[in-house]
Amino acid sequence: MILEKIVPRAEIATDRFVLRPVRKSDAGLFALYAGDKRVAEATQGIPHPLPPGTAEAFCARAMATGTEEDIWVMDGTRSDLPEVLGMVSLRKMDRGQSEIAFWVAPAFWNHGIASEAVQALVAANPQKNCTMFAEAFQDNPGSARVLTNAGFQYLGDAESFSVARGEAVPTWTYIRKLD
After folding, report:
1. What stretches of 105-177 adopt beta strand conformation (E)?
2. Which of 16, 51, 124, 138 is most solvent-facing, going by the fewest CB within 10 Å?
3. CB within 8 Å of 33: residues ≥ 6 apart
């Protein structure tokens, strides 16, 4: 038998909410929010319509250890907001780098939730990165503002496939060098 030390993802506090690890009980709100076409079409990997079981599979993957992606829930219960406001993740790359991704439920758009989450994650730097990257679809300037508000610099144009849209979508790529 091989015993492996399991290190839970740390909680990261912001002024209004906590970034915390995903729980099985999050699946219902994930399905509700990620099932919204506006959310799905603003991401690379969320399909629309959301197939049955997708939210549960996402939670299981997010809770697994030894993965290439660390995922946190934006939990607003400390401010009498819902338990799930959205999610933010860091996908590990090589050479001390990662890619940040996020989405927020439409009811909380334009309230600074994403900016607060991204800024907190960058400040905490839980993977001890030297560099973080991010992409924003060019038809989503709000996500680009979130990134520039968190100190990300424009790097160039590219394109990424959106599962919900079923096509490649033009993106802006951003970089953030960390101390």
Report:
1. 131-137, 153-162, 167-177
2. 51
3. 39, 84, 86, 103, 105, 106
Taking each helix axis from N to C end, the angle separating 113-124 and 141-149, rounded to the nearest 10 degrees, works out to 40
CATH number given to 12-177: 3.40.630.30
Asked if residue 173 lies in contact with residue 158, where contact means CB atoms within 8 angstroms, the answer is: yes
Determine the Cα–Cα distance for residues 93 and 73; give it in Å rounded to an integer: 21
Angle, nearest 10°, between helix axes 54-63 and 27-34?
120
> pLDDT tens, 29-82?
999 999 999 999 999 999 999 999 999 999 999 999 889 999 999 999 999 999
**Residues 6 or more apart whose Cβ sits within 8 Å of residue 115:** 145, 146, 149, 150
User: Mapping DSSP to helix (H, G, I), strand (E, B) and coil, where does residue 4 land?
Assistant: coil
Q: What is the pLDDT of residues 137-164, one digit of tens each?
A: 999 999 999 999 999 999 999 999 999 9
pLDDT score recorded for residue 62: 95
Q: Note the pLDDT tens digit of each residue in 18-28.
A: 999 999 999 99
